[in-house]
Structure prediction request, 139 residues.
Amino acid sequence: MQITFSCVTCGYQLSAPPHLQGAAIGCPQCQTQQTVPLVPQTVAVLPPAMPAAQAACNRQTYILVGVLTAVLVGGGFGIHNFIAGRNSTAITQAVLCGVGLVLIFCTFGVSYLINLAVMVWTIVDVCTVTTDGQGRKMA
Prediction:
């Protein structure tokens, strides 16, 4: 690989082999002595380290949404788990709550036990779950 550079006197394009770095050579156009420039060695540059990914939500939000929806909505429909990215658990809770609410009218309130079970499940979730759906710790 040749080192190419311009003559400082006449601008003629010169080239020299790498072992002549720092040596003086003559310009064929104007016969002035030119120093072959030093070419820095190529250094691999690593991209900057990525900061640790943050959880989908913080723990306080998870607890607040879980408790409020469990108490106010009757089971919560797994909304707190959707927020945290725990979608499979959230879908299961939402389906159970939906089925429970629909069946309340058919079973004269007996199926509200389904919603009560999801409500207990939600309270256990907010007390024990500390990571989001991708395993990242909630702040």
Summary: Strands lie at 3-6, 13-16, 24-26, 33-35. The two ends are 54 Å apart (CA to CA). The first strand starts at residue 3 and ends at 6. Helices lie at 59-73, 79-84, 87-104, 112-128.
